[in-house]
Amino acid sequence: AEDVVGTLDVTLYFLNKTGELTPEERTLELYEGDTQLDAVLEALQSGPKSSALKTALPEKFQVRSLWQEDNICYVNLPSSALPDLANADLRTAVESLAKSLGSLPLVSEVQFLKDGEFARSYGPVSIADPFPVG
After folding, report:
1. pLDDT value, residue 49
2. How far apart are CA 98 and CA 40, in angstroms?
3. Residues 73-116: pLDDT tens digits?
4. pLDDT reading at 134 higher than 80
5. pLDDT, tens digit, 9 for 90 and up, residues 40-56
6. How far is CA 24 from CA 16, 97, 123, in A?
7. In which region does residue 53 sit, left (phi positive, over 0), alpha (psi from -120 to 50) or beta (all else)?
8. What local confidence, expressed as pLDDT, does residue 2 receive?
9. Alpha-carbon distance 42 to 10, whole Å?
10. Which of 77, 83, 96, 130 has the smallest number of CB atoms closer than 10 Å to its CB?
11. How far apart are the first and last CA of the chain?
């Protein structure tokens, strides 16, 4: 069993019954080798603790990689997943991910990339500019 090396207080964003993004406060355990970004993504993918909320990430939604430079978090999304997400609410998924990552103290904006490159859009969602957080 791995040892917990620290904890992290974050705010994750899930959908409420009316389909609005709703914050859920959470304390995440960090294990050896975990980054704060990975911990937030994993917790978001695991879904909410509250039964009144549901995940905003569609079933086939994928994140290829994420990293941070200065106060900007970069999220690399694969275009190969787009055909499986044709009917999904990608705008809400992207906003949920951006707001959740933005709850980390050192993240001031989230920039989405497509296949590792800056892009104008990811499916129907504009990703040309960074998502401001906070």
Report:
1. 96
2. 11
3. 999 999 999 988 888 889 999 999 999 999 999 999 999 999 99
4. no
5. 999 999 999 999 999 99
6. 10, 13, 27
7. beta
8. 62
9. 12
10. 83
11. 35
| Residues contacting 130, CB < 8 A, separation 6+ | 72, 109, 110, 111
Token pair listed for 56: 């905003």
Q: What is the 3-state secondary structure (H, E, C) of 85-108?
A: HCCCCHHHHHHHHHHHHCCCCCCC
Q: Are 22 and 58 in contact (CB under 8 A)?
A: no
One-letter amino acid identity for 1?
A
Q: Is 113 exposed, middle or buried (0-12, 13-18, 19+ CB in 10 A)?
A: middle
pTM over 0.85: yes
3 state SS of 6: strand
CA distance 92 to 30: 27
Of 72, 70, 62, 53, the residue nearest 118 (C-alpha): 72
Only one residue has tokens 């989230």, namely 110
Q: Are 56 and 92 in contact (CB under 8 A)?
A: yes
